[in-house]
TrEMBL record, chains A, B, C, D:
Name this polypeptide is given: Malonyl-CoA decarboxylase
Segments forming domain Malonyl-CoA decarboxylase C-terminal: 175-421
Location of the Malonyl-CoA decarboxylase N-terminal domain: 88-172
The keyword Nucleotide-binding is assigned to this record: no
Highest taxon of source: Bacteria
Catalytic EC class: lyase
Species whose genome carries this gene: Afipia carboxidovorans (strain ATCC 49405 / DSM 1227 / KCTC 32145 / OM5) (Oligotropha carboxidovorans)
């Protein structure tokens, strides 16, 4: 079969013949051969799609455009995304006219509505129409993933991204998400995605996965969306324990002996992973954790404590800056001297060193969480921002909680527990969002105060 | 338990304590007692909901507002809808500012985006947030149903309705709809809705329903939406036959002998019903019929003909006007004379009369379908508009196809068959939508020509 | 299509061509035409089936025999059942040989095994092979239902029935039964069977059914079997209440206000119905009630009391005999005098009469339950035998608990509550089964003692 | 918690208190501690279980016995199995009495029935009652697996095994088996069993499994049983191809390019594995293949050829015997000379050698399949017996079809294709089972004839 050009003839033919059965044809073409599309074809298809009123033709055209995008070269794809920015923006003349009308007649509902319509970038409607194609939602999520890779070099694409976000927020609203438990009876095609997407503590292989899903004291839950049926959008891994853990290694030990879940008092959220880069910025984690807490409470009434065991991704870099900062508010020269051993590999092997560093690091960590801000004035640590923003409380600092290479590198092994207490979650959340107040346990606050006192 | 005022104290309390568990509390209140809300409370809740940034509090507030709406008096509800029109429109000052910016700096992306945001009625965001409450989508569909009842007397509400439509089109887009077969193994809670919603040929009782669903030569399909799980949004009833039927009674006869579906050549869509008045104007029927045609073809390859057996709701009224119109292009005085018997009950009982009327009525019907227009210049018959707009072809006129009281009243018993031919459906649709060309069989066209010739 | 004789030619043809696709052919023949079989054909098919070693041919022959049975005349069917008794019994000669071997060599395992094989009626193997046909189990259950109708007039068939029971006990053992909740979301094809099979308090129509299944304080559960998927074998209807009920009418009142199931303390089993006459004597009720009690306790921990509200089907007849018995141990002449009003319709309308009869009837009822025996020396009341045999306790006598025509006729309105207390159920059951001890509440025992004292 | 003796006190307690809730207790004991049972306890439990009439107590006792068996030592288990043989056989005295009755009164139905009952080993009823425990069926299948390991050294156990087989044939009859497709969306807990149980061409790991299940031109089907829900009893792996394959390696090649299943003409059954050693001798394969053929034909009407690609496990040993046999009917001295190279590893690497051996080996193979018999006079090859017994036809000999180590060892690389042709399957099966006639293609027969001619 000769390679195929996605040319005008094809397009014309498509328009004249595409019934729904055309899907199969179209799919066949794109799968079994090596079709090509001409430069500019995609944008042209987009224009045609926007100009048609008929729904059925619209679906066929949407399919054709998405199929064409799939087989396009990287350059053609980028060109199409740029066309979205440049050719599918708002309609200037219509805006002008609407403004004139308002100038003339005042802000009548009709005039404002016309203004609103005119100011809406035409690509929003285009994206909506593309979404009607079978598989359209998944294709658009992938398209945005690609778009995000170009934004920093092509700032014009930022506006396109805004429109994607606007629509995705609507299509992926909480009401559409379905919580499902993921365990060892879950279909393999979903489980292989858990292996692939786990972002916090990598899953080595199927045996490792099994040891996280199959034991009676382990749980995993994910949010699914009706249009992306085989894809968990986000998932959380949970360990049921008898106390708040202080380190990750014992939780992941494949040889540990499971406990009876009826005996557990504590649910530990030790890993939360988003899976779709194309859904960046559409947040699900907040809803996920709260619903899992509620479901677990129902299933296991003996559970009284819901905590995370979380990484501290920004700590090592921040501490390095403090050590280099003569005016550090948290480290004095003596501290810095002690901490200089951190630059030597293997410092964790010497118990005396480990003991000496501990109080200094914990005090610094308390400061990092309670006082440090990033350039935009926000709480410095991104994971802390997420959990505090959800209404959790900073509960405990876990010195050397993660001594893996990654753990030592990003936080000198520091981990923390955030506690989700349903009675306080709303007020914590409000206080944090509205006033920036950080909920923290007495122990954490004391680590800060002690240190400041000691430094005095 | 004393009746409860949905007052500020309650609201305050709500805001400070509402976790997700609050749902249960809230549900309890609204179900088991007779809570009341104060005048203006709903709009105030709306303002609060829009002003909050926290997602979780937002869900609780959305629940509270919808629960309050549920228990409000009819007057309070209308007042809330009017508040949506008046208090939750676009922000005039922001529009002014955006226009100023454009005047000063030109149409930069940022300026146009700000303009677009400002011109969006604030109720759109409010409705989006209400949709996040559990059961929110269903509650909003009911709210719009109520809204539609007020629009003609309160024209301001038209703008509110536009926003509902804008959002519903997005939430109920084709991609979210799930086709499901409905048969005698379908859960009873869904079947009772089929009984309730059947709009074309009323279902008398469960035995009648059984006779439409259980026989091997009957099918029924509906579209379902993930957020309205027990509600078919639209459904179609299908009879499998050996020829194109000319009347409805034999299809519904409870004593008929079913045929083997493998022997059937024809699928007859004899009833299509939308179920949610609150989704008026969001069209699903087009997609439904086409997908059912495809599914049936796959299941029963022997099926070659897909037709409707449809009512002609506007025909009797139109014919009455023709009879009264001296300049009628379709009826001459002799015709009118013959037709005068139509005013007498029981005219269908006399075979001679029936025979005499037939050619005149069929010729008038051909004219009605092919030439008559409504005030807006559209094809006169609403059912014809639907099927022709879907790409169907007007296939056959069925004289006295429905001699029930309802049938005689709306169309003097006339029914028609529209034919769905997958090979022509796209081109018919395009021709109809873009140029107003009506696809009709030779037989129907001939009925028109013959008559015109005869009249000459 | 000419009517078809199920003759030898057909049979021969069948044997030579029947692959699994033959099923369709066969099904077609038996459904769409009016095939006949010759006298003796069924028994002959049975012989052939037993003589074949091939599994696949066996399935086809089993299908043919069952299909033939389906279309046979009543006389042919009876003749086949009699053939089962006479021609498919044990093999006498083989028994003789086996006995000879034992006489010669003693009871070696091989000899005893040969004896066992020889003594097994050949119809057992025949029934096992019939069971391999698609739909075989259902067909055999129907066959036994028919068989039971003939047993009293054809005592030879008793042996055939024994073999059916032997096999059914194995195929329908508890391990295969699946408990499923039946509610208003259950498929209609199953619900219509609930209407049809309800044996205790007839269900009038779908509205009545709905009022028993849909309210939040109602439950229904049934046992299903993997080979009879659409048929509940037995089901129980449950009302959730705040106290032990004393009458059936309030439970079935369509206008009653449901209670919140979380508020209920008591689960009332007010109707238990077996559905398959062909499974008579294979008992499921015991397991059903106990599993439902366990499931309800898990779902609603607030439930503390599990009782029935049961009819007393043998009471009226027994009381009539006591009234006629001069030596009645429970009624003295004065009692009989009072009770004479029972013969007059409408006695329940006069409050004074009702009051006067009450103590006499309750004392008689206590005697009936605690002392009366049937001819085989068993507890007289069949429903009592069932529940006491299950380990329940006779809890309360409900005077005029069922004033429907049926209730008055069978028990002068008397109902009773049996209590299922999981802590006592095993010991009650053992005591009843092994020693005939009846578990009864103090109140019931007192009704007996009081009366005896009063009579002295 | 101290280790626990499963002693009389426990047993007594069990009997007096075991309600269904006792299950949990019991399960808890056996899982979380290290309970022990006394010698002889199991047999005693068995006696008690048989002596009880109560169903509920029976279930509890059955659970106790199976739980006790689970924790027993290997010696105790064997002792229990031997007790089944010795203490739970038929009742000699009852047999004597029954024989006496027959001698006296002749073979009345009652007498024969009593004889049958007496001759039935009591362990049959014991096993039936054990089957009522939750998980009983699975436990009994494991028990028989263990039993099979002892039979050769303890011939008395053969009788126990016969009873297991008798009951398993009934419980695992075709009617209860459910065919399910196994693919990459199947739950992982089932897939890991596919990996473990694959007996023909070992599955290396999850990637290998994926390459057999996920591609569009691969299928896998298994039979499941309602009481062993997570266990496929048998499964078959299928490749869809465009021709009958001659070697296994290309089918399993992970890098092969899948074909469109709509293009396939041939379904190749390349692996069939039984999974439960405890179900040895209960045959499912026959039904499985035929049902899969039917299902595939329905799904993919373009499939016209259904063949296996099968190993020849007995060929190498048989050929070795022929080479050593001076009177071999199939190898003459020259042949033997050529074949002597087979003893040298790597003979397949030399094309000339490979060519020279081919005609000799194929002729020998034709003889092996068509003429060779085992000691019991059956077709020599066990795989051939299975497929020919199912009605398949020996279609093609595949020289060097499997050059893996295992393939070379068991058959010098020879594989064969058996063809399942639905039109001939019944008659082939009958001819083979009743008369020993082997269905073989002309090509295979010709390989035999040619050689014989050549040898002459």
């Amino acid at each position: 079969m000769p390679s195929l050009t996605f040319d005008r003839a094809f397009l014309t033919n498509l328009l004249s013949t595409l019934t729904d059965r055309g899907r199969d044809l179209l799919r066949g073409l794109t799968q079994s051969a090596a079709p090509r599309i001409a430069d500019g074809e995609l944008a042209e298809l987009g224009q045609t799609l926007l100009s048609r009123r008929g729904e059925a033709t619209g679906v066929a055209l949407a399919q054709a455009l998405l199929a064409g995008y799939e087989v396009a070269t990287p350059e053609q794809r980028l060109a199409f995304l740029e066309a979205l920015a440049e050719m599918f923006g708002p309609e200037s003349e219509a805006i002008e006219r609407a403004i004139e009308t308002i100038r003339a007649d005042g802000m009548t509902p009709a005039a404002v509505s016309a203004l609103h319509d005119a100011a809406e970038p035409r690509r929003q409607e285009l994206i909506r129409r593309l979404n009607l194609a079978p598989g359209g939602t998944a294709a658009l999520v992938r398209m945005r993933e690609e778009l995000l890779g170009h934004v920093s070099e092509h700032p014009l694409l930022r506006a396109v991204d805004n429109d994607f976000v606007h629509l995705f927020v609507s299509w992926f609203n909480r009401g559409f998400l379905v919580l499902q438990r993921i365990d060892w009876t879950t279909p393999a095609n979903i489980l292989e995605k858990i292996i692939r997407y786990e972002a916090v503590h990598a899953i080595q292989n199927w045996d490792d996965l099994r040891s996280r899903l199959a034991p009676p004291d382990r749980r995993c839950y994910g949010f699914f969306h009706p249009r992306l049926v085989d894809e968990p959008l986000i998932f959380v891994e949970v360990a049921l324990t008898k106390e708040i853990p202080a380190a990750i290694a014992p939780l992941l030990d494949p040889d540990r002996v499971p406990i009876d879940p009826q005996q557990a008092t504590t649910a530990v959220f030790y890993s939360i992973s988003n899976t779709q880069r194309g859904l960046n910025g559409i947040s699900f984690g907040n809803f996920l954790i709260k619903q899992v807490v509620e479901d677990l409470k129902r299933e296991l009434p003996n559970l009284t404590t819901f905590v995370t065991l979380s990484p501290v991704p920004g700590f090592a870099a921040w501490l390095a800056r403090q050590r280099a900062d003569e005016a550090s508010p948290v480290l004095d020269p003596a501290d810095k001297d002690v901490l200089s051993v951190l630059d030597q590999p293997g410092w964790t092997d010497d118990p005396a060193t480990v003991d000496k560093i501990k109080p200094i690091m914990l005090a610094a960590a308390a400061f990092y969480f309670l006082e440090a801000k990033d350039k935009r004035g926000r709480v410095a640590d991104p994971v802390a921002r997420f959990h505090l923003g959800n209404g959790a409380r900073l509960e405990k600092l876990d010195y050397l909680g993660d001594t893996s290479g990654k753990g030592l590198k990003q936080s000198y092994g520091l981990m923390v527990n955030y506690c989700y207490d349903l009675d306080d979650i709303e007020s914590n959340h409000e206080a944090f969002v509205e006033k920036g107040i950080i909920a923290a346990s007495t122990a954490v606050r004391k680590a800060l105060r002690t240190r400041v006192a000691g430094a005095a």
